[in-house]
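Incident review: delayed structure delivery

Summary: a single-chain prediction request sat in the queue longer than the usual turnaround. Root cause was a stuck worker, restarted by the on-call engineer. No data loss occurred. The affected request and its eventual output are reproduced below so the record is complete for anyone auditing the incident later.

Affected input:
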Amino acid sequence: MSMTMLGLQLVLVLPLVACVGCSGPAAPPAAPASGLGPVAWERLTRALPGSWTMPGKSGPFVVSYKVISGQSALVEEWGVGTKSETETVFAPDHAELLLTHYCAQGNQPRLRVTDVSPEAIVFRFVDVTNRMPDQDMLVERTLRIAGDSFDDTEIYRTADGHDAATTYHFTRR
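Output delivered after worker restart:
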């Protein structure tokens, strides 16, 4: 093997080795494929588009949903105009449904639908990009939609490895 070829191999391997452990505490195992994507997609795209509100400390807190890109993505805009403004994109991937959450912390966790029942749609952790060791990350999200209201339960893994759940209750605006 020539020295040039050997040098190229080292360049390709070293960046991979340098990333080991860069995401802080161990991430949860990736959610297995469920095949529930089409059912979840149908429910979410029928029920969520529009604006939703809940009481907030300084007035109503608004979240809105719209279907874009030829019906291939559902975009959630969370807290527009606040310090906590985020965006989450739900998108089908063949028989799966994934969401990518563009967190105000600067990381981007991806979750996959794992359970669909008449009461709830559950998404669980797949992976995360751009996470610093001191950042929390979204690892589970459950949507319970009932007519003109829905509950959104989010579980974040804290930087020290503990899980913290918060439930938000929204009504159609």
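Verification: The longest strand covers residues 137-146.
Action items: add queue-age alerting; document worker restart procedure.
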